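Posting this for the archive.
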Amino acid sequence: MYVATKGGERAIDAAHDWLAEERRGDPSVPELSIAQIREQMRLAVNRVMAEGSLYDPDLAALAIKQARGDLIEAIFLIRAYRTTLPRFGASLPVETDAMAITRRISATFKDVPGGQVLGPTFDYTHRLLDFKLAAEGEAPEAARKPADDTPAPHVLALLDRDGLMEPLEMSDAEPGDLTREPLEMPADRPLRLQALTRGDEGFVLSMAYSTQRGYGRTHAFVGELRIGTCAVEMEIPELGFSVEIGEVELSECETVNQFTGSKTEPPQFTRGYGLVFGQNERKSISMSLVDRSLRWEELGEDDTGAPAQDAEFVLYHCDNIQATGFLEHIKLPHYVDFQSELELIRRLRKAAGADMQEAAE
């Protein structure tokens, strides 16, 4: 006999109190401040902002603290808070050409206008634990340099100039907004890019990796990866012109993909594109690979049946908040459902036993 255990409101309140105690940890250890999380766990903060669709480092740091470091829970908190905010306008498209660059690399050309900037990167570090960090002494003087304001045109423009790159198609149509309307299929490219930039980093990474292993027919080069800050401008109707209202840190990646041509398109290089909040280059590269794989139909390619080519599969499963909600609901009470399943199995076993006995006779 299965009996439901009743705890009620007191049990839930006690669980919340215990959670707060666990979140604080040992009271003899100094409590983490929001500023510490914001400044010293910046990559985690960037991920929460990107997948939470809200650029606010302080709020992202607060969410990480409240979630005890569970980034998906922190993303959930940020998205929930975002729904309470009024929308009073829309900014103009950011000009990444004018980005104040802290990191910019190209795997396709050695010498590019504006130069290559390694910036802060793990690429050339040894993956060995640095026990000096455990000493918690004064940090060494950083070799930090101000962002480079030197004009740096996009590398893919070099190929575009020679007619080797597919032309950019600009549209004046207002794109959809996944933060206000649910995703519907078929989804155009702006909606696909929104879903990918909000998508779970691990999922998008695994989809990108699958394309590199042959499940998506892409052979990509990083045409350019750039990280830096961009000004955000907004048109003020009363003024008749746009004003700068702030700046955001962005990671942008454009991949160059080989394309032998199709019935509708000539042989040329094609693009994959990724853009996310903060320094989040793994996500932006992954996003650009998946974006290119999802473009198979518009480029006249064959559908190979690869997961990364299936827009419905990718876009409906990349959102970690939706996935978490559906996953975690199964730990809530399902007593009635399970009782019906239990009764069904008992009836089937009884019927199967009778059939076996009849066959034996």
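The beta strands are 100-105, 220-236, 241-259, 268-277. The longest strand covers residues 241-259.
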